[in-house]
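Tokens in:
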């Protein structure tokens, strides 16, 4: 009887630890994901102000994606070598540096420095994108899918956290638009690091011997892998398009505040429409628009 009950007890104990880790990772995901939301919401507007050419306004978003690509494999290697929590804490250091560097870039008016901050933001994103895998480390087979789902839900909350941070802090350091926002971005990473201290995951086992795993070329030929990559490319492209273009489309609202007037410079389409003179309007009975001359009305006839 005890032999049969032992596996059940082990599963319950493991899921108790897994639930604790899921709570930690979901909260951390909400805070860390807000770091990326801040950059997506502000980079286009700041880029319009700092870039030497307006066509480079969204370059920081591309730099962010490049940084995320650069950090994905190193984060996995660090997790295997140092443990999952230590590797993720290294990512939070990149998050703190993101806010500080971007704030300094706004204060100094340096577009190059702002792109350096975007690189660190991408590195931080590569770390918090792996929180879902950390949630699966201590979860049983039955609880694993729920654990990953709860951590992903933290990413939904992150969109609200980041947006509210931008709204609340954008004008706190006049006349430097979003300077205080980037300080808050660094603070989010610091708080996230504090919450992450409660994560308790075992160190991954040593790497398997060479040749035991399948080569990447074999995995890439699987139809499921091809479909997953195609869906990822399509959805991330759409997301980046919307999150990059929307702040630029709304940037004309910046001119409503004197402390934020320089961010638009009258270059957005809405401001250009407001600056153009209205088309002349004439009474339909007294003007022939197609021929460009007055047409007699019935009241003017003898």
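Residues out:
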């Amino acid at each position: 009887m005890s032999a049969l009950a032992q596996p059940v007890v082990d599963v319950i104990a493991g899921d108790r630890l897994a639930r604790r880790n899921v709570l930690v990772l979901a909260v951390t995901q909400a805070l860390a994901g807000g770091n990326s939301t801040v950059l997506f919401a502000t980079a286009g507007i700041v880029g319009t102000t700092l870039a030497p050419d307006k066509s480079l306004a969204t370059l920081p978003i591309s730099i962010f994606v490049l940084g995320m690509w650069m950090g994905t494999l190193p984060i996995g290697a660090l997790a295997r070598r140092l443990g999952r929590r230590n590797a993720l804490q290294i990512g939070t250091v990149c998050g703190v540096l993101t806010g500080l560097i971007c704030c300094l870039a706004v204060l100094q008016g340096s577009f190059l420095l702002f792109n350096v901050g975007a690189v660190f933001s991408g590195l931080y994103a590569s770390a918090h994108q792996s929180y879902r895998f950390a949630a699966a480390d201590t979860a049983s087979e039955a609880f694993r899918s729920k654990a990953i789902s709860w951590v992903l839900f933290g990413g939904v909350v992150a969109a609200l956290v980041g947006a509210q941070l931008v709204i609340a802090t954008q004008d706190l350091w006049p006349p430097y638009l979003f300077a205080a926002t980037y300080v808050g971005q660094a603070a989010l990473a610091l708080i996230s690091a504090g919450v992450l201290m409660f994560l308790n995951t075992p160190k991954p086992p040593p790497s398997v011997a060479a040749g035991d795993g399948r080569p990447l070329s074999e995995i890439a030929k699987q139809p499921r892998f091809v479909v997953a990559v195609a869906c990822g490319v399509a959805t991330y492209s759409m997301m980046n398009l919307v999150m990059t273009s929307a702040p630029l489309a709304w940037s004309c609202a910046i001119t409503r505040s004197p402390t934020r007037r320089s961010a638009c410079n009258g270059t957005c389409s809405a401001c250009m429409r407001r600056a153009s003179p209205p088309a002349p309007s004439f009474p339909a009975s007294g003007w022939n628009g197609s021929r460009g001359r007055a047409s007699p009305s019935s009241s003017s006839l003898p």
